[in-house]
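Intended use. Records such as the Glycosyltransferase family 4 protein entry shown here are meant for training and evaluating sequence-to-structure methods. They are not intended to support clinical decisions.
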Amino acid sequence: MRKICFFTHSMNNSGGVARVLANVANMFSDSGDEVSIIVMDSCGESFFRINTNIKILTLNNGICNSIVGQFIGAIKTVYELRKRIKQMQPDVVFAFWTSRAIIAIIAGYKLGIPIVACEHTAYCRARKDANIIRYIVYRQAAAIVSLTNEDAVRYKKINPNTYVIPNEINDLEIRKHNNSNEKVILSVGRWSREKGYDLLIEAWNIIANKYNGWKLKIVGDKEDLEFVEEVNAKIRNYKIGHTIEVKDATLDIMDEYDKADIFVLSSRWEGLPMVLLEAMSRGVASVSFDCPTGPRDIITNEYNGFLVNANNVKMLSEKIELLIQNNELRKKIGVRANKEICEKYNREIIYAKWNEVLNQVV
């Protein structure tokens, strides 16, 4: 039995990192490995389902907003994590997210335990100082896992032991087409600027009152309250509140996809968007900004979905309108999307990729 440890900030949220980590941890656990997750916050719970034999261990170092406080907190986290790794003696540590991976690599220095840095956002989004630190520290990683081929090219310049592993989608099934007739245009993700809901509202405003009965539905936690108010101000200004429904994050997200006719990803940047993969896996015709990075790895434009120029509100609106007008096109796009996602992102394929990394570094 292999001992596998994961390290991240928190599992008690509905974000993509927590969802991906839960999926990967469950895959290893289902295969008979002993799995533990170390988190930086004080909550030992997971928003997403994890196997009952997976342990969540907390460092509980607290959070400080001052620069000095953050620096001291980082040193304390390195110390506590190093102590925990020495006690556990895992065969490998998979560290999720740039800052957590940097901490884990430093904490594991000369312990003889491989640390794998697992990236989950676009390479270009890191701050300049973080890029410099990442460039230095990631050279000491046993391996780097990138979500996309585009970013893997950059990571290989830092560390040649770089692997591309996309996100796994569970609950896959071949579907003839999405059967919804709810007239719902769905977007899923936390309310933060990177998700681009302000741009989505601008696009929706162009056509909101042209198609009776159609509504835009946004599902996600309100993380950035200032951004939430900015988006709500746009909705009030455009007077389109009656065409928009907002709902908090839910564990029954697949039900939301199944009730949707169209899915829209309006992000300014991504890693490899789980929500886009999930929507397409359910046969929902999808439109996405061609943002860095991820959507272009998933969507073949005009075949299994639509890619539009990043931040181009007018083009986004036009593709949404095209799908509203053409039910047969929605079905055709949805069928192709479902088939490709089932073939490329199923559990067996993704687990084999993670297992390959594990076998290479252990």
